[in-house]
Amino acid sequence: MEVFKLKNNKVEDVDVVPFKLERDIQELVENNTDIFFGLEFIYSELTVGKYRIDSLCYDAENSSFVIIEYKKGSSYSVIDQGYTYLQLLLNNKSDFLLTLSQHYNKVLKVDEIDWSQSKIIFVSPSFNSYQKDSVNFKNLPFELWEIKRFSNNTIVFNKHKSSSNESIQSINSKNKNVISSVSKEVKVYSIEDHISVMSEKLLEKWNELNKKISELEGVELTPKRHYIGLALNGSSFSTICYIKIRKSKLIFDIIRGIHNPDGFKSQNYFTLDDPKNIRKDRQRILNNGSTSKSYRIEADSKSDLDYLIFLLKQKYNSFNR
Q1: Beta bridge pairs of residue 257
Q2: Residue 246: alpha-carbon gap to chain centroid
Q3: What is the largest CA-CA distance in the chain?
Q4: Could you give the strand order of the β-sheet that contains 228-232, starting from the edge strand earlier in sequence?
Q5: Is the dihedral of CA 231, 142, 111, 226 positive or negative?
């Protein structure tokens, strides 16, 4: 990736400033997990059994754990390490739950966590072609993010995207038993899992909407267990809305942002202009005491898609100011 700085209508090169140590990457990410990934940082260097987790994070929207691992070299298998750490998480739920309970200073129960949405994120200055190809499956609970630092204090994140429709269960691997064991509990969802419940008329409406959404540059649909996320560049921090699908209606929760008990509001806190007044204000109290706020809009096969896109574009544009 070439990066340039514009000055007086002329461009100048911006040099890459390599990270000297993995720890440099780790400290940067841990201080900004909410900005980079929309996650809450919980614990650094957590030891469980004979393994050490680089960064333990919590996905408040999905009530699930996310482990972040940092790498500078390429002599490791993301498949082997990823599934080993997921198995570690699932086999030691009480240890991870205790860590989260201590972080929030409140007792949490096992059933308050959605273990099926557990995930591993690998962060590295670069991944080799073997590592990228090894995760080219449709249902892997892993993400690969390349991080670059430049001389003008710019940080660039690029997410590796899978283009395969093949399942990880179809391969022969020395860790096949581990993969099979983890896959029984950890589930990666698809768009098809959600739209399969739609009526025929609503499906037609969805296809029309999907075409309009695809015209928004950089927007991606990310299916989770309870919803389909609509986000800019696939980033949880740049989420536009959560889409919940029912047989005869679509439910859109357009994200306002987080309101903390001390009155502080999250970056890009959003206010919707809704002349037709079709929205409903919603809020949810998170484990850390903050309030997650959103606007709920319901649509069916007769709804005005142009007006819906008008509302969604407001949130989309708020990330492009």
Answers
A1: 293
A2: 23
A3: 60
A4: 219-223, 228-232, 239-245, 250-259, 291-299, 280-285
A5: positive
* Nearest CA among 298, 308, 286 for reference residue 244: 298
Q: What is the CATH number of the domain that holds 203?
A: 3.30.1460
Measured CA distances, 93 to 8, 50, 55, 89 (Å)? 56, 15, 16, 6
Alpha-carbon distance values, 210 to 196, 214, 221, 302 (Å): 15, 6, 9, 16
Overall domain count for the chain: 2
Q: What are phi and psi of 124, to 5 degrees?
A: -155, 155
Which H or E element spans position 293? strand 291-299
User: 10 versus 255: which is more confidently predicted?
Assistant: 255
β-partners of residue 282 are: 294
**CA distances (Å), origin 314, targets 16, 77, 113, 272:** 34, 42, 33, 7
For residues 224 and 193, give the distance between their C-alpha atoms in angstroms, rounded to a whole number: 10
Asked whether residue 176 falls in the same domain as residue 217, the answer is no
> 86 and 39: one domain?
yes
Q: What is the pLDDT of residues 193-238, one digit of tens each?
A: 999 999 999 999 999 999 999 999 999 999 999 999 999 877 777 8
Backbone dihedral angles phi then psi of residue 189, each to the nearest 5 degrees: -95, 160
* Beta strands, E only, 63-118: 64-70
pTM, two decimal places: 0.89
Structural domain of residue 226, as residue ranges? 191-318
Beta partners for residue 52, in sequence order: 47
318 Cβ neighbours under 8 A, 6+ residues apart: 268, 270
